[in-house]
Amino acid sequence: MSSLPWVAEVYDLLGPSGVREGQLTERAYDCDAYTVDRSAPTLVAMPTTTEEAAALIQICARHGVPVTPRGAGTGLSGGATPALGGVVLSTTHMRALGEPNQTNRTIKAGAGVPNVAITEAVAQLGLHFAPDPSSQAVSTLGGNIAENSGGPHTLKMGVTAQHILGVTFIDDSGEVVAIGGGVRNPPWPDFSQLVIGSEGTLGLVSEAVCNLAPSPLVIQTALAAFKTVSDATGCVSEIIATGLLPAAMEIMDAQILVALKAAFGLEFPDGTAALLLVECDGDQEPVVEAEMKAVAQAAQNHEAMTFETAKTPQDRLRLWTARKKGVGAMGRLARSIVTHDGVIPRSKLPEMLDFVYATAQEAQIGVANLFHAGDGNLHPCFFFDDRDPAQVKAVVEAGEKILKKCVELGGSLTGEHGIGFEKADLLGLMYNTDDLKLQRSVQEIFCTTLMLNPCKVLPLGKGCSEHRSRWRGAAW
Amino acid sequence: MVVRSLEDVRDTISSRPVGYAQPGEWAMPSEALILQSQRQSLDLSAWNRVVDVSPADLVATVQTGITVRELNRQLSSHNLCLPYAPYSEAELDMDLATLIGTNFPHRLEAKTGSWRDWILGATVCTGTGLIGRFGSRVVKSVAGYDGHKIFVGARGTLAFVAEVHLRLRVPLETPPPLADYNLLHRVWASEWASACATYGATAVYADESTNTIVAQVPADFRVPAFEGAWVMRSGVGKLNLSSPDQGQIHYYNRAQAVWDPEHRLNPGALGL
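Output (structure tokens, whole complex):
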């Protein structure tokens, strides 16, 4: 056990089963799924209740110890990297899941409850929790709230913020405050909406009242193959312009298909440059069928080579395979992948994709794209060897170049992964000095210590930059 | 003062408090109304431009003095609309600053969302005179704090919301406005039957899609209490105070201390 005075207090609070430290712990918790930057914590604390989490934060506040909240560690922007060391507050044991209220379509859940567990708990009632990040099998409610996570079906259903009615919130002094949780969409300022997406920097959400959406009675899924990526993006634009709002519209480019073939033996039509997956849903068969017919027409107008619709639930799962397993399959192409996240106005998709391919070629690194086309939310995946510092540097620089282009085209640095540590210094691309003052003023409303998840969201201060220079030293 | 620039607003509020964008009878009898009657107000009638429309992206940037009626008239030439279907005709002629400030509900909310969903970003001037932007112009972004969402329902306090980036739809069929009403009461679905029975014939419309009673009630009507519910009333002064929970009040007070410590914008309008 570390001899630091506050560590003993943490053990007293949580007992040995609630604390982890040592070399293995430091290695396991020094980053999330964004592996470029790493920083080890002193220890990992695993409270089980709001009261324990609040008491833990009080100890840390008293001793000036930084606290970094962490869910499942699937974040892709370094949001759970303990940038200044200190305590990683793992929500893994905060898994209380209340009884669903079928009539009001709500359920109360702890921060550590995996996203998919909420839907599994209410599926038999004909309900589901709509946010569906690709990591939903393991990523936690708390992590989804921190990042305001999206997913394929957010095109129609909205992001996490639209499905959280209230939160139990612990501020950086350890005070517990319940915010919201009443009837939907109140006519007053709703501060829970400001907490959502704040990446754990304003406080820790320990529990939330979740909105449950009725599950659609009819779902139709189609997969179309196109000769060019711009045919696929043009098809998406036409679908949107007709006024349709499909449940999901996802594109995968040729390099993803190479990975899928290598990993799972999946075959696609010769000459396929892009696959477009479209899902329409609703409660009335004729309406959904009419929507899918319009989608098919748009695909035909953009010279789709094939257009396959799912006939059975098994068919549907098969059509989704390319999307769901795309990133995992990338492991067949290289030792490491970094998945970027940027948004552009949907109309700029063709221009942006050309830029992504040119940037990767110039940097001599591989790139594949799978993305939420309906939202204009790109996910270029670079594949490389992270044992080569020159490649790591090339990946980071290419990523920054792509994000700058997103902003230049009127877009955003991130659609769903968050700013985290990765993009904190890039926020100035989107916001001018006064905008950043406004951003900092939000912290003034909530925080007194700035020791909750330091070095995230806002441009890095001197201490954070120096810290990063030390651990990036190996690469450049 | 007729608003023609954000600098006008900043200069005005640097010397005195102002009232603006109050939704008529739906407003609190606040200091803001007194300021308006004394002509210490921000007049948004010239602050009503559609700054930019991107039909392919279903997004527009607009100044908040514009009415929904005028906005949708201009958007119709791009085959777009703001999918706001008011309960009564009068809301169509309210400006966006008023509707955003009250988070005014509407008949298509369950299908097309509401102000918190539509506003992608906003340019604001805080009570301290800081002019800046929150959010972005794309339909999905998690870059930085979503400060723009806090001004929805803030009754014009905290900051003057000057311009908003709006998410739009292709025009869709909207239900016709209803007869006059003076009360909106949204309850949990579990209380819906009880609420319908309580309001009885005073209900002009029972909107089951959002569990909202739309009613015309006498001024001395005693509003039934339902847990977690909210109420909006017109013509009843301070009775139109639908109080948020303590957590919201706690952070509202802190936000006011940061963004408008001298209560320059619509003082008293939220009743807090």
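The longest helix of chain A spans residues 389-408.
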